Amino acid sequence: MSLDPPFYQIILLTLDYHFLASTEPAPFLGQVWLDLAAIVLMLLMSAFFSASETAITAFDNFKLRGLIEHQGDPSGIYRLVLENRRRFITSLLVGNNLVNNFSAVLTSNLFAIWLGNAGLGIATAIITVFILIFGEITPKSLAILHNRAFFRLSVRPVFWLSQILTAIAIVPIFETITQKTIQIFQGKSDKNAHSGESLRDLHLMIKILGGKGTLDLYRHQLLNKALMLDQLIAKDVVKPRIDMTTISHESSLQQFIDLSLETGYSRIPVQGESKDQIVGIVNLKQALQKLQSVPKQRLSEIAVIEAMDAPIYIPETKRVTNLLKEMLQQRFHIVIVVDEYGGTVGLVTLEDILEELVGEIYDESDYPSVQESLVQRDP
Length: 379
Known about the structure:
Blueprint: H1 7-21, H2 32-58, H3 61-71, H4 77-83, H5 85-115, H6 119-145, H7 147-167, H8 170-186, H9 191-212, H10 217-229, H11 234-237, E1 239-240, E2 247-248, H12 253-263, E3 267-271, E4 278-283, H13 284-292, E5 308-309, E6 313-315, H14 320-330, E7 334-338, E8 344-349, H15 350-358, H16 368-376
Parallel strand pairs: 2-3, 6-7
Antiparallel strand pairs: 1-8, 3-4, 4-5, 7-8
């Protein structure tokens, strides 16, 4: 919540004083009561602009998306705030400064009529107090207390104000100058910094909801882990090369099936001369389908490379959230992680990523009794 400094008013009053000193003071609008009415109107408009500025600033994107989801956005104005909140704020600041400046000029003019040259100091004090109390502090405080109501009340008039100021190029000029100034002091925009701030806000929101009992313990932990997942890269969840189970490209499909039953893995990387040369991924389901059409006496002759798929390589710096999205969209379950020189770092499975979210996932291969029964059925 920012308060407009009174310094610009002092400058305006000083200029107005020099102007009035050389001419006979007269009501700016022809009648004293019209000037007084205009000052009251300017204060009301200042209050509206200040309250609207606070309401639109404080009504963050999370709240705004919730409002759109529950009440809709037939006119599309809410979505415009989401896309370009800065334009709304710029329009409000321009409007607020215009009405405050005009009220300062009117006040100095009236006090020059009533008190002569001595009226400048009194006019400065009075208009500053009135603007601070009725045009800044009070409306902004009310907008904070009733944020949602003030937002819904003000957003449409502010939209039309921004349309008018944009049409006459006032807002675009100020936006361009402001953006250039920000670039000078800040340099290139740090998107990671903004992302980090958003994550901290979400963490805080989850903590508050958890403390109020709105979220149960499981959902609270799940949401926290989901946010933490965005900070992980493939290197953080990789199964190291030394722990990888692989099979030689010279092995048969029968040997692969035996290894699969022994380890419980349905997908196993196929290596060349070493684990640095992963040439494919063989799938138990595909291997069994391949062997169905092969005579029993030739089972040991079918090479594992005849049923393998091409491996998918990813850099160790790839974000886990992006990797999860790709694995779900493209329907693959295992990837090979490589370093900057192309050497094998390890592998990541879809199960590894999901376990970061929900904890340990147990399947049939994790239970010794089931694994033993599978081995016993091995022909």
